[in-house]
Amino acid sequence: MIEKIKWFFKVKLFKRDIRTQIERLKGNGMIIGENVHILNSTIDEGHAFLIEIGNDVTITNSTILAHDASIKKDLGYSIVGNVKIGNRVFIGWGSIVLCGVTIGDDVVIGAGSVVTKDIPSNSIAVGNPARVVASKDEFIDRHKLGLETKPRYEVYALYKTETEKRKMKEEIIDIGYDM
Which CDD domains does the UniProt entry name for this protein (predicted)? Predict the structure, then answer.
């Protein structure tokens, strides 16, 4: 009996999956393109086979769900749906993408957004629920102008000296641009 308990603790409790998150997701059937960065995010590993992520995608501290168990207790089934994220997509900090959603190419999902419906290509979508507020082209043009008129910094914030950080804090009135 003691040996069984030792085995349980050794194998079941302390067994670690040392694969990366992306390796685990691919192993569960998720399709992931090239140059994909998933940073501190939760992705539905149990339904990963329903999720497809294109190339050049960044997902920051967000959640991607391919199922919704809200009706399971009442009906005995969960809602499931494919999630497709296109190419050149940025999903901002704290966003949630729900099942059954397609996000087109060249899309920015603003921080804290909840994506409940499809987002067309070349869009900026924000809010809860997420709604399109601009085209990506308009968004980029607006910030190109900002790069000419607002403070711009060539060293990423984490690598700045204390003097550079103080200067940056003093110079930025509303927004600026950092590497």
Answer: LbH_MAT_like
Q: Check whether 21 has a pLDDT greater than 90.
A: no
Q: Say which CATH number the domain at 39 has.
A: 2.160.10.10
With contact defined as beta carbons under 8 Å apart, do 38 and 22 qualify? yes
In angstroms, the CA 66 to CA 84 distance is 10
Q: Residue 156: inside a domain, yes or no?
A: no
Structural domain count of the chain: 1
Pairing of β 123-126 and β 131-135? antiparallel
51 three-class SS: strand
Residue 96 lies in a domain: yes
Give yes or no for residue 8 having a pLDDT over 60. no
pTM reported for the whole predicted model? 0.83
pLDDT value at residue 17: 56
Which of 37, 47, 67, 143 is flagged as catalytic? Answer: 67
pLDDT (tens digit per residue) in 84-108:
999 999 999 999 999 999 999 999 9
User: Which of 15, 61, 18, 14 shows the shortest CA–CA distance to 37?
Assistant: 61
Please say if 67 is a catalytic residue. yes
Q: Is 66 left (phi over 0), alpha (psi -120 to 50) or beta?
A: alpha
